[in-house]
Automatic annotation (TrEMBL):
It comes from Planococcus salinus. It is found in: Cytoplasm. Mg(2+) binds at D219, D243, D247. This is 3-isopropylmalate dehydrogenase. The record marks Y141, K187 as: Important for catalysis.
Length: 355
């Protein structure tokens, strides 16, 4: 397979973790006989410094000529006082909008090697393996009017049938490649948007008779994520509910340095990035955990290119290194087995070659 991948390292630890992911992609290309053309471009604070624009036109062009985007992270105190249009985060918001990346996908999977000795974690988090599909470009964060006066403020929650259809279809497609269950989260007992959401869900499910559907109110879901997260396979929900529930779910696995994510649209094009930020406190010290970036690259292979075997091989290699007792400082808290970013990647690649 021949693919072009836009690589946007960004700021802080972004360049360190994307370099790690690129090395893993190169190793996969060699081993499985693929050609990945990797095209680097600037985003975030680095792009502001270089081009006075957090998402320069050149970067958009590189991404438009690519089959998928791999991103590190953006942000840092250096740019915190910049006006809104020159803030690093603006680069991320703009790229999602430009490419209409409406579906945010976050897998949450227990990592046995990191569950430690906490009985609660062993009991509840063991065997958790779920994916949260969050609508990313509509809902309360974007609805108009957005207004305020001295005494009152208004946000608007709007969803169209089309917007709901395309996100629930994403969830159904993902469920088909997994355990075949979708839990749709809403607040249909009080919200009109949720009533429409549930209606659309019921309509679309007829096209996926092989997938089991369950409706759950968002407050119940928040509880169930803590008491019985194993019960979920694919969870699909609107923008704000998904924002909150995905952060809640992310603590189940333990470390921010382990969590990948994807923002995609229906034709398979997508942007893949770690959930974590630019971690300026550890940038440039070889301490960054590259797992989230490496696992994001695996998501890209699976979701945008349909390379399931290669994606699984990467995931198994990362878990293998952790099982062997090696990891960066954020996951190896007892001090034993701590390795640098670079050493960790070398071990992942060795593991890949052994598989
Ligand atoms: P952060 O995720 O960068 O860091 C939070 C804590 O986790 C820090 O102590 C950091 O050292 C640690 N950490 C994060 N990723 C790690 C990794 N891969 N390996 C080891 N340790 C890791 O969040 P924070 O500190 O709130 O934000 C820092 C900057 O990142 C800010 O400018 C923020 O706006 C930006 N940010 C960017 C995001 C993105 O690009 N998608 C997402 C979140 C924050
Ligand atoms: Mg959030």
């Amino acid at each position: 397979m021949e693919k072009t991948i836009a690589v946007l390292p960004g700021d802080g630890i972004g360049p360190e973790v994307t370099e790690a992911a690129v090395k893993v992609l190169q190793s996969i290309a060699m081993r499985y006989g693929h050609t990945f053309h990797l095209k680097q471009a600037a985003i975030g604070g680095t792009a502001v410094d270089q081009f006075e624009n957090p998402l320069p036109q050149e970067t958009i062009e590189v991404c438009e000529a690519s089959d998928a985007i791999l991103l590190g992270a953006v942000g840092g105190s250096k740019w915190d006082r910049n006006p809104a249009h020159l803030r690093p985060e603006k680069g991320l918001l703009n790229i999602r909008k430009h490419f209409d990346l409406f579906a945010n996908i976050r897998p949450v999977k227990a990592i046995p090697a990191l569950l430690g000795s906490s009985p609660l974690k062993q009991e509840v988090a063991k065997e958790v393996d779920m994916v949260i599909v969050r609508e990313l470009t509509s809902g309360l964060y974007f609805g108009e009017p957005k207004q305020r006066s001295e005494e009152a403020a208004v946000d608007t929650l709007v969803y169209t049938r089309k917007e709901i259809e395309r996100i629930v279809d994403q969830a159904f497609e993902i469920a088909r490649t997994r355990r075949g269950k979708v839990t749709s989260i809403d607040k249909a007992n009080v919200l009109e948007t949720s009533k429409l959401w549930r209606e659309v869900m019921e309509e679309r499910m007829t096209a996926y008779p092989d997938v089991e559907v369950e409706h759950m109110l968002v407050d119940s879901a928040a509880m169930k994520l803590i008491t019985d997260p194993r019960a979920f396979d694919v969870m699909v929900t609107e923008n704000m509910f998904g924002d909150i529930l995905s952060d809640e779910a992310s603590v189940i696995t333990g470390s921010l340095g382990m969590l990948p994510s994807a923002s995609v649209r229906s034709d398979g094009f997508g942007l893949y990035e770690p959930v974590h930020g630019s971690a300026p406190d550890i940038a440039g010290q070889g301490k960054a955990n590259p797992s989230a970036a490496i696992l994001s690259a695996a998501m890209m292979l699976r979701h945008s290119f349909g390379l399931h075997t290669e994606a699984s091989a990467i995931e198994a290699a990362v878990m293998g290194v952790l099982d062997d007792g090696y990891g960066t400082g954020d996951v190896m808290r007892n001090g034993k087995g701590i390795v640098s970013t670079e050493k960790f990647v070398t071990k992942v690649i060795e593991e890949l070659e052994r598989e």
